[in-house]
């Protein structure tokens, strides 16, 4: 039995279309790239969560979620607990800049959308490159996505 967990992330696009992502490595899923974000605190909305997480992870306080890109669910282990995480993925635009203050153990990069599509390492959510390339007019609900080792193609 997996514990339900709610989370939200925010994709930051530069004026030229580059995407800000973190590169993480954990025992269960290995190396993967994902937008800033994390678990939704009790009483917090997904939009409040992405503002807080963006501030905590990058120091940026001037960006707002502009639209919901997609939702998805996936299973993984969070702090030793098997969870089924439901994520809201938002999009915003902002200047291309470094996180402040930059954490010495954070691995991040601005990636062009063509580089994102040919990254060769898993993305969370796995269809992020395709969703950004197609720019759907309404949020896409991906449902349960398995196989976290998949890379976006």
UniProtKB/TrEMBL annotation:
Cofactors named for this entry? Mg(2+)
What Gene3D superfamilies has UniProt attached to this entry?
Nucleoside Triphosphate Pyrophosphohydrolase
Membrane spanning segments where? none
Q: What is this protein called?
A: NUDIX hydrolase
Q: Which Pfam families match?
A: NUDIX
**Which positions fall inside the Nudix hydrolase domain?**
3-134
Q: Which domain of life is it from?
A: Bacteria
Q: Which family does it belong to?
A: Belongs to the Nudix hydrolase family.
Cited CDD domains: NUDIX_Hydrolase
- Which terms does the record give in the GO molecular function aspect? hydrolase activity
Which InterPro entries does this entry report, sorted A to Z? Nudix_hydrolase, NUDIX_hydrolase-like_dom_sf, NUDIX_hydrolase_CS, NUDIX_hydrolase_dom
Q: Which UniProt keywords apply?
A: Hydrolase, Magnesium
